[in-house]
Amino acid sequence: MTAQVCVLYFAKSVELTGVKEEEIVAVPTPISSRDLWSLLLQRHPRLLLLQDQVVFAVRHQYVAIGDQVVTLGDGDEVAVVPPLSGG
Amino acid sequence: MTAQVCVLYFAKSVELTGVKEEEIVAVPTPISSRDLWSLLLQRHPRLLLLQDQVVFAVRHQYVAIGDQVVTLGDGDEVAVVPPLSGG
Amino acid sequence: MTESEERRDVFKLSRDWLSVQEVVDTVSGSSCGAISMFIGTTREDELGGRKVIGLDYEAYELMAQSEFSKLCDDIRERWPTVTHVCVHHRLGWVKVGEASVAMAISSPHRHDGQQAIRHCIERLKASLPIWKKEVYDTQEESWKENAE
Amino acid sequence: MTESEERRDVFKLSRDWLSVQEVVDTVSGSSCGAISMFIGTTREDELGGRKVIGLDYEAYELMAQSEFSKLCDDIRERWPTVTHVCVHHRLGWVKVGEASVAMAISSPHRHDGQQAIRHCIERLKASLPIWKKEVYDTQEESWKENAE
User: Fold this and answer.
1) Regarding the domain with residue range A2-81, which homologous superfamily does it belong to in the CATH classification?
2) What is the pTM for the complete model shown?
């Protein structure tokens, strides 16, 4: 199975990818968050600079990058979340 | 020695004495704060209702009613301080 | 001017509505990253069928000012990084729902200010010569007493 | 309406100057005797000869709102007496000296609110998807990271 997801970038990850958001048409699902990160790295190799610092937010829920498996549906939002600095 | 002092009343003690301030012309000095309280009680017996609840402020410094001896000078301010309730 | 000369301790007794913005502005400064505040208001309260409609405050004004200075000295001794301290306190009639005290403390980082503001309100209640009586809808009145 | 139905959790992301008075008014109510507040401002800072002139904020807005709701649930679970919670946070350009966040919590008595406001700012920094970069007088910029 694959899903068409909307990937959102924030903060430093916007500068590294040059985009704020993009549609990715055929993301395999279910997929581990680590494999999803590898998939984004293939598209935007400079994201490697954020390796070990980012987490995802999948449908507004934080997901650490690792073994955790996520199931994606068409239209789902996946955000790349660099270290937070609100307040 | 005696001193002429200005006694200030606040809160409940105003209601009990009926005055906000009064000059007392010949207060013995030095005097224990307990004796000073007795002196005020003679003038205003209803102050007895505040017995064990009040302290004095002599020249803006709190003084508990008890053995402590205070030295008064002409024009000194002595305040009767019922339980505080600021804030 | 050195940092310590710039520090402000501002106390105001006011018969008017308290401006929270004015209290905040008083402690603001470009070296302060954090402002901690406390505002005390009169709650709507019922005591044995009587409803509180407001509070009537009085103060020994000159002494309140000097006790406030001691309070600030004490705060600065415990939390030396505290930058500015401002307390506005109402006098006279304060309707239910209105603020009777507004205080703010600024500091470079938030932890000191947050601890200091708690100490500030405790000490204010324990040491400033200020009194309030509750006034009820029955026209009865009762002088209050802060807990130790 | 029961007490719990009346409770307000208000979150606002704003490109304008934050009104402290508006934040206070949002949490005011006749059952609240105490309002605890925290305001975070940008300090004037120098880092290796560069001077910070301001901050540029961005947020994942919809998610920030839902994380704020979780934060409020957590606060109410720990301090059930908390009445209202209001947080206003800036987006976009914030000059040095201006508030980037203003928050207030009301409660019948002060202790719960004072603890809750400390928790609120800690949790906000740890969990709300908001980012800032510092902008220097050299036109350099640097994304910040909150301490754990």
Assistant:
1) Beta-grasp domain (3.10.20.30)
2) 0.94
